[in-house]
Amino acid sequence: RVHRLEERQARTIGIEVGEVNIGVAYAMMLLVWPEGPRQDAVFSGIIAYTIFNQALVWGITAFWARDNLAKLLCRRRSSKVHGDRSTASSAPSSGACEVSP
Fold it and tell me: Region entry Disordered: which residue ranges (predicted)?
């Protein structure tokens, strides 16, 4: 699992990534077709869909993983301040890195 996402979240992201890959493969197939206005229109549409779908995947992933990413960053910052990870985990929290449950 990616950043401890729930199963539903991981599956949704996997499906979206799969759609992006299918879009890219289909666009590559269109490159083999003879040139023409219809093929150009289809190719442009697939590329636009793929780009916007990828942006959606990044947005969904960032939204779902934000708390886990924030906790990871806090641990890294704390370990840099305190020298190592063993002292970072036992160090009192400053409150700046508190993440809602």
Answer: 77-101
**Residue with tokens 């020298």, as numbered in its chain:** 83
Q: Are 75 and 88 in contact (CB under 8 A)?
A: yes
Rounded (10°) CA dihedral 83, 88, 93, 98: 110
What is residue 83's DSSP assignment?
Answer: S
Could you tell me how far CA 61 lies from the centroid of its own chain? 4
- Interatomic CA distance for residues 28 and 39, integer angstroms: 12
Dump pLDDT digits (tens) for 37-62: 877 787 788 778 878 877 887 887 77
| 55: nearest Cα among 11, 17, 15 | 17
Which amino acid appears at position 91 of this protein? A
Whether the predicted model's global pTM rises above the 0.70 cut: no
